[in-house]
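User: Before I run my own analysis I want an independent prediction to cross-check against. Here's the chain; please return only the C-alpha cells and, at the end, one sentence I can use as a sanity check.
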Amino acid sequence: MCFHTSTITKTKKLEQHFKVRLSSEDIRTIFDKPQYHLNGFSHPNMLVIPQQKSEVLAPGIWGIVPDHKTPEHILSYYKEAVKYGGGLNARSEKLFDHFIYKKAIHEQRCIIPVSGFYEPHEHQKKKYPFFIQNKEQKPLALAGIYSVIGSYITFSIITKNASPFFAKVHNVKKRQPLILDAEHAKSWLAPNLTTTQITDITNFFYPESHLQTHTVSKDLFSPKTDSNIARILDPVEYDGVKI
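Assistant: C-alpha cells:
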C-alpha cells in the first residue's frame, strides 16, 4: 500500500528531471511549498504527468474517481469510497478487470513524481513508519492511472507484490508502489501500448540498490499531530526495528 508521500522537490528541478514543463506558472508557488507528509486520505493535490499531455506537470487530486462522476460529486464519492481505500491505490493485478481501472489503463496512465514515501512496518504488534527515498535524493517516478472529471484530474498510485526489500519493510501486507526508472517511465506514457507491454512494465522492479530507508516518528500515524513538518523526515530509532 502507498497512502503517505513526501514532495519537497522544487518544481524547476522536477521539470528538469522529467523533461516537462509546469502546466501553468500560476501554480508554481503552490507546488514549490514543501509537503513533508501528504496523507492520501485527505486527498491532497499533487503534480502528475498525464499520458494525454505527457509534456506537462499538471495538478491532480490523489484518489481516482469514476469518469462518469461530475466535479460536484468528487467529495461525496471520497466519503463513500473510504471503505475501499479512497481510490488511493490501484492493485496491478486488477488493472484490466476493475470497473474504474480498465477504462484508464490503456489511455490514461500517469507518472506521480515524489521525493519519497512512507510504509508501515510491524514489530511486536506495533506499527513503525519507514521513509523510502532514492539514495541520491532524486525524485521517484510512481506509476499511476487517472480519470478526468470536468477540469480535474484524479489519480491512483499503482501497487504490486513487494520485492524482497519491500517485503521486509511492509512486512504484513507485503505490497509496494510501482516505481519506474527513466526508461520505463517514458514507456509508461507512450500511446498504443498492448496489454502485454503494459503488464511487462508493471512487472518491473526498481533497483533496490538505488533506494534507502529509515524509520521516522510515529507522529506520522497520529491524527492529532501535524506531521507535515520538516522533522518528520528525521531518522528515529526503535529497539529491535531494523531492515
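Sanity check: The mean pLDDT is 97.
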